[in-house]
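Collaboration report, partner site 2.

Our partner group contributed sequences for two proteins of shared interest, and the home lab folded both. The records are reproduced in the order in which they were received, starting with the first partner submission.
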Amino acid sequence: MHSFVLLIWLTLCAAQDARQRHISNSLTLGAGALAALYLLLNGHSWLGADVIHSGWAVLLALTLSLPGYILKRFGAGDVKLMTALALATDGTILLGAFAGAALSSALWLLLVPKLWLHMSQRLREYLRYFGPDASKKLPFAPFVLIGTCVTLYWIH
């Protein structure tokens, strides 16, 4: 059940990022605050990691995402998304989500030139920020969702 709620939240973030190239603070900071409150009140994260492991996960999230932000490859919403995910999970899930996001985005970049012409106009408009002519800074949250789904499937 907890994984399901986490995936719903990530789906909302991914949908907003895909359509607007922006994730609202209410989704990222709100979820991060709720995850931190849950962690402090219960002594473990939403998915069961203890406080120490969640702390390391937050440090890992910042270590992995802040350089991308500084290099303008990630937006601030991506950093907040990964930090909130770290507060809700643990380092293993966070690393899996990050690695899965990197692999799925690389796969997308390889496939999009071949697939784009075969998509309907409506789908191309919906995915306009994922197109082959879009900037090199793809919306990251949809790929984080894919990485998290694969990781949760793999470890459970």
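Second partner submission, folded after the first:
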Amino acid sequence: MTRIEVSPEMVTLYGSGIAGEGPFPEQAQAFVFDFSEGSFHFHSVFEPSELHADAARLRLIVIVARAACERLRGQPSLLQDKQHYHMPAALRSIVVAVRDCALPEGVQQIYRGAKCIELLCETMRLDVEDLLLPNGAVGGLSIADSERLLAARRVIEERSAEKLTIEGIARMCGLNRGKLTRGFRELFDCSVADAIAEQRLSRAGNMLLATDLPISSIGYRCGYLNNASFTRAFSRHFGIAPTRYRAARVAA
């Protein structure tokens, strides 16, 4: 595997193959992101030999000293040892950026190292906020239905700008309407409509800050058919109109 020395407390490994003999940070923990499964698993005590079984898979392994993880979290971790977790869009986009980096070889390691720091920090944020969902059976849901619901969540994350309906999402993921709506409440503590709105408006907020596109164009790109409906939804969600949101952040 390609080794990236991020800091004395953090090493990342990228690609396929065994983790090797190190050196690695002392008393380290590991986050193993699997490119093909859309999931990651956590090792509270890093042992390279435990990762050999999946050596043929394309992985990104972030190895960090436990003390550094505790500083970042600021509180005890909610992650369970060797538990597999759903990889939400916020993490998948960073992992894909590492995988698809096309920069010249001389700067690839610098870029990938920086993205791995971002990946660790974002994972810690989601951990602290209890937003990471374990793969497998949850509550009264079977393993199969939990996986279908996670697939439905990925559809929303990746296609929120499209015209999505409960029936359409249910069909794509092999669920009926009732099981989709009940399952979303149980697994994600929100409705399907809330999840779609959250994804669209989060993307819109980022675009307001990162681009100079007209507000009406941003609303359309995020799935709203007209500027009035976008402005109403955005104002309810953020407590401020899109124009004021952009102006306030620019002024700050």
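Feedback sent to the partner group on the second submission included the following. The chain has a mean pLDDT of 88. The radius of gyration is 20 Å.
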